[in-house]
Amino acid sequence: MRINFNREGGYASLRLKYQVNTDELPKDAAEKLLNLVKSSGVLELKQSDLAPDTGVATDVFSYKLTISEAGKSKSLSFNDITAPASLRPLLVFLQELAIERPK
User: Fold this and answer.
1) What's the 3-state SS for 23-76?
2) Three-class DSSP category at 96
3) What CA–CA distance (Å, rounded) separates 58 from 13?
4) Angstrom distance (rounded) from CA 50 to CA 65
5) Residue 31, CB half-sphere, CA atoms under 13 Å: how many?
6) 72-79 and 2-9: which strand pairing?
7) CA dihedral angle for residue 48, residue 50, residue 54, residue 57, rounded to 10 degrees
């Protein structure tokens, strides 16, 4: 599974980008990431399932997440306000990976 993760915004307009192929991660990190993708339900979400953005506060992060596997790709854009709670653990882990293993 290939994942492209982009986060930007906040007070300082910080940007964090991370790309990973789960086959290239250590086994424990790959298993955790695959489990978080599955448990988050992100692959079943549609952009229309996410609450519309009604104005972004200056301290909110915006995300773009693209997940590709077996010739299929899913891209979603959302922010801290519109992101479903089920995505939070996945976002936190992706941020940790981006900081620990920058690419």
Assistant:
1) HHCCHHHHHHHHHHHHHHCHHHCCHHHCCCCCCCCCCCEEEEEEEEECCEEEEE
2) helix
3) 9
4) 13
5) 3
6) unpaired
7) -140
58, two tokens: 């200056």
pLDDT tens-place string over residues 59-99: 889 999 999 998 899 999 999 888 999 999 999 999 999 98
Answer for the pair 29, 60: CB distance below 8 angstroms, yes or no: no
Q: Which residue has the higher pLDDT, 13 or 44?
A: 44
End-to-end CA distance of the chain: 16
**Alpha-carbon 31 to chain mean position:** 16
**What does the block give as tokens for 95?**
């941020």
Q: At what angle do helices 27-40 and 88-100 cross, to 10 degrees?
A: 150
pLDDT, residue 52, reads 66
> With 70 as the cut, is the pLDDT of residue 56 above it?
no
